[in-house]
Every structure is written in C-alpha cells, then in structure tokens.
Amino acid sequence: MPTSGKDQNLCRKMNAPESFLQTELDQGGIRLPLDEERSLPFREIPLETKLYRRRFVVLAVFSLYSLVNAFQWIQYSIISNIFSFYYNVPSDKIDWLSIVYMLAYVPLIFPATWIMDRKGMRIAALMGAGLNCVGAWLKCCSVRPDLFSVTVTAQVVCSIAQVFILGLPSRIASLWFGPKEVSTACATAVLGNQLGTAIGFLLPPVLVPNTVEDKDLMGYNISLMFYGTAIVSTVLFLTAVAVIKDRPPLPPSRAQAVLVNSLPTNDTYRQSIINLFKNKSFILLVISYGIMTGSFYSVSTLLNQIIIFYFKNEEMNAGRIGLTLVLAGMVGSVICGVWLDYTKTYKMTTLIVYILSFIGMLMFTFTLGTGYLWVVFFTAGVLGFFMTGYLPIGFEFGVEITYPESEATSSGLLNAFAQIFGILFTLIQGRLSTTYSPLVGNIFLCVWIFVGIILTALIKSELKRHNVNICSGHLTHQPVPSECPSDKASSSIKLDCPPALLHETSL
C-alpha cells in the first residue's frame, strides 16, 4: 500500500497531465533530465510502495550464510598454533589463511559489484552462498598433514565467496526495507557476519583441542569441524536458491521508487565509480572506515598470538575473549542501527563511536599486561562494542552521502579499503608484535585510529537518501538542460532538495 496520503493521491492521478506529475516530482525533490522526461511515460514511474513479510526471510537466509562464511575466515587463526603443528608450517602461513580473505577482495570487488548491479542481487547472493559451499567441501578433502595446499585453495574459494557477501547488507536493506527500518535491517545483516566471527572464536578451540601427543586425533577433530561446516553450507545454499529474489514487486520507499526505472549499463557503472571518487566526503569516509575495520581485522587475526604472549596455554580463553569482543559488537551494531533509524544523526553517531573505539583500543592495549584475564575480557568487550558496532554505521552513512549511486558500489568500495588496511595492519602489527611485543603492535593501531577520528570529523554530512524520503512542497520548477554534465550521473537522477534539507539533522 502507499506509504502516505500524498502518495495515494499521486497514484490515483497517474493518468493526469504530465505537467501535474512533473510538479509532484519536483516537490518530491527529484529531477529527471529533460530527455529522460520526454522518453519515460510518467505512468511507468512506480510511486506506490509496500513492505513485504518476505523481507525478513531474505534477511535471515543472507545473515546465516554470511555467518558461515565469517566462521570459515577466522577458524584457522584462532587456533593457529594447532594448525601450524598439524600441517607443519610456520605460524605466518596460517595467518595468510585469514589475510587471503582481505587480499582476494580488492581485485575482485569491481567485477563483483558489476554483477550485483547488472545481473541483480539474486545472482550475487547465490554466487556467494554457492562458493561458500564449494570451499567448505574442499576443506573436507584437506585433512591430512601433507595437504596444506588443498586447504589454502579451499580458503581462497571461500574468500571469493566473501566478495559477493560483504557488499550486500546495505543493498538488501535498501531494496527490501522501509525508511524507518533500513538502518536496523543493515545492522542485522552485518550482525550475521559478526555472529559467524563470534562462533569462529568459540567453537574451533572446543572442537579441536591441542592434542599434540596424538596427531591422528587432531586430524579427526579437524575433519569433524570441516564436515559440519560443509553440511550447514549446503543446506543454506539450497535455502537461498528457494528464497532470495532480486527485489520485491513494489519498492519499499520513495527513494527506491524513483530509482526503479534507472537500470545501470556499462557506461553508467563506470560513471558511478567516477562520481564516488569525486565525492570528497565519501573519500574521507572510505579511508576512515578502512582504518577502523582494518584494525578490527588485524586484532581478530592476531588475537590468539596476543593472548598467548601474555597468558601461556590459554587458547580456550583466547577464543572466549574473541567471542566477547564480537558479541559485544553485535549488541553495539543493533543499538546503533536502531539509533540511526530514530535520529538520522549519521555523522554525529559515526564520530562518537569512532572516539569511543579509540578509547576502547587504549584500554585493551594497556590492560593486557596486568595479568588479570577478567580485565582483558572486560576491555575486549568495550572495544568490540564500539569497534564492531561501527561497521553497519559506515555502510549506512556511505549510502546516505552517495545516493543515488548504487549501494553495492559504495559498500564495495568501503569494504575494499577495509581489506587493504586489514592486510597492511595485520602484516605490520604481526611483525611489530613478533620483533618487539604486542604492546608496540597495539600502539601502532591506536595511532591510526586517532587519525581516523580526524578524517571522520572532516566529513560533510549530506543525507541525500533520507531527504528524498521526506522532502516535499519545497521546490519550484527548475528546468535542467539536457546537456548539463550533472545529468550524466549513473542513475540519471538529479536531487534538487533545498540546501537546508541536505545537511544532517541534529537532536
């Protein structure tokens, strides 16, 4: 059903003269180029919006197979000493089984986002679930001490699957959920990935204890973990085939309604990339997002080594500390998502969470040497609440300041920078921790997070998507020349909301 009385009146007048309909579009804050206005019948513009119950099923299935993919990312590094012993390889080679997730993302993000935009969300989602399933079964074939190359191949396949997963939360939220729930939906989608990381911290130390005296038993335990993951991945892939669709029959919001007929082409995809790199606020965001998320990746990958350095033979507690970090972050994600839906204060929330993450990183760094595990659990929880809770905020902030560009493209670039920083931070922090101590490695991250605070403060907040959903009655008709460069945007849509509406609202 239409979302408002004004939309209902507009839908009843779909056969009205074009002048009336153009006036309504102007008042909604949207301008189409004149050549598009002439070629596109107004009756084909879907102004009716509706929310479908199916959106919750799509979100749940995506979150679950995203969970399994994240589990497969961290399952090696949290018991890196055990895998290093089993495959008889140095610990830095086990670290690369986590780093490969970040390494694969950077070159593959552009073809992946092209597929999401041109072939649809369903194809991208099924590729993610399918590759995740294939990688899981390949791991089952690698349970032998001389088959480390097979487990590396399997992890590479899972890392390719991740490329089709990380960029979808904001896409699913925008295509299926209404304006008052879109940030919460994005946070929930990210939540699945975080929960997978949490389970990846918890289960491997339990399923694969450090039985150095019996390598055959160690291999048996590893195979149980791998086969269980493969079976779950297969069930989720088949469920995704049955459930996930590109988009609902009617769009969930006005912001999506005006984009429904603006299907991307190869040229518009390239133009979209150019537009994003010309957006100074977005460039600041991708760098600051990369710093924060890369720091999280680095801490997660090296957590086992950090904890064992200060607390000998505490592999189980290293996993539990990782679980605490991520579970606290899941709570933070949900709270931040609900807060954004309620207040729309994207920049303020982003900056505050960034500052608190910096404080949490300082607390975690300087309490590791106290000798008290309960203190480390507490500080890890504080760090995780804000650092992991930041992830969906960055996605949604990026969509707001880059609308009407594709959510998949903006999210993909955010993730690409996160992977780049994640690789660099993991390698540098790992080297500093090995050469000097984990304290030096953690201080290195603290310095960079402080830089991220400064960059975040410089972002100019323009809530373009939010303004399309709410602005009305503020504009007069303003012709736009058909040759104007601004009309070459990838979506063929120009936003004409008044300047007063473009900036972030405040409490």
In short:
The protein is mainly α and 507 residues long.
Descriptive account of the structure:
With 507 residues, this protein is mostly helical. The protein is 73% helix and 1% strand. It has a two-stranded antiparallel sheet with strand order 1-2. α7 runs antiparallel to α8. The relative contact order is 0.15. The N terminus is likely disordered.
Mean pLDDT: 78
* Whole-angstrom Rg: 24 Å
The residue fraction in helices comes out at over 70%
Query: Given the structure, what is the number of helices?
Result: 22
Give me the side-by-side strand order of the main sheet.
Answer: 1-2
What is the string of helix and strand elements? HHEHHHHHHHHHHHHHHHHHHHEH
Layout of secondary structure:
Blueprint: H1 5-12, H2 18-27, E1 30-31, H3 34-39, H4 54-74, H5 80-87, H6 91-119, H7 121-140, H8 148-163, H9 168-176, H10 182-207, H11 215-243, H12 254-257, H13 266-278, H14 280-310, H15 315-343, H16 346-367, H17 373-387, H18 390-402, H19 407-435, H20 438-457, H21 464-470, E2 494-495, H22 499-502
Antiparallel strand pairs: 1-2
Helix pairs in contact: 4-7, 4-8, 4-10, 4-11, 5-6, 6-7, 6-8, 6-19, 7-8, 7-11, 9-10, 10-15, 10-18, 14-15, 14-18, 14-19, 14-20, 15-17, 15-18, 16-17, 16-18, 16-20, 18-19, 19-20
